[in-house]
Amino acid sequence: MLSAQQPSASERPWLDPGATPQIVIENVHKQFGGFTAVDRLNLRIYRGEMFALVGASGCGKTTLLRMLAGFETPTSGRILIDGVDMTDVPPHQRPVNMMFQSYALFPHMTVEQNVGYGLRRIRESESVKSRRVAEALAMVQLEALAGRKPHQLSGGQRQRVALARALIRRPRVLLLDEPLSALDKKLREQTQFELMNIQYQVGITFVFVTHDQDEAMALSTRIAVMNRGRVLQVGAPADIYEFPASRFVADFVGTTNLFEGTIERSGAGLVAMRSLETGTELCVDDGGRHEAGHRVWLSVRPEKIRLSKQPPEGERINRLKGVVWELGYLGNRSTYRIKTECGKIVTVFAQNERRSSQWAIDWNDEVYLSWTADSAVLLAD
Asked: What are the pLDDT digits (tens) for 99-118?
């Protein structure tokens, strides 16, 4: 099986103004009575993408996926796939297939029969259908289990059966609703790589919904972060994580510390912010987008903060003093919650680099927190 790869610069069509998107979601609005599920949403998804829709429950991501599949009809707006308006196209005639969260396997059928079920209405000889089933089973490495029933399979194996069944009709777009939610943590991480490999192998567009931000970060070429029926930001995982466009995105994707304040001055690419919560001045690299007096929030990720028992030295460094309030050991890293002198709680992730059962920094220790000016980002809303 091929190893998963991130797209090269030439494989990022969303950066090319002249590229033609495969899926166009144009001003799509969906109303259920008085409730707005999707609010005049616009998206462009390109061929071969692994595109993730993320957001809290009720944000509209599953409704949008169901409209792509044809199971829901937009109240207004339109969806185009390969230039064809899907408004009046029923689900079974769309060039898409959907893999459901429950996998929806037939318990009385074997693996082979489940995978081949989607070919029952295709006008092909039995030998051709058998060959396609064999190819699909080989793709997900389940040839040896072809005769088993679903109850004889592990969760990961059932997930691969569902994936093979969804792909056997060779759709142009595969829609996945929480594809790995039924798996335990370790199996989910393993299956993420299998899913990336298969998507790379078949080369079709995957659009998937997940509530798991780590899963979206690991799998996708791009992520759309949704809230209240709207897309707040679309971008590659690193862009979403490192350069969030709003407080909501910064707080939803991963963990962050937010400091509210006002701009005091800016110059030479460095902005000074007076934090209302710490009573101190914090500096951040910024291109001068904010003027003095503007209300802003500084976002800094926990892994970018350093802990020490001695005052840190150096320029363009932010420093706070506090006490270890809470401490959690997670094996590969420890999570510290530091209560600063002003009472604000700051979360810090520290990598456990050395094999030891003793903490260099422990409960109730007085510590200094520090991070560089280029480790944080300023957010206006």
From this structure: 877 778 889 999 999 998 87
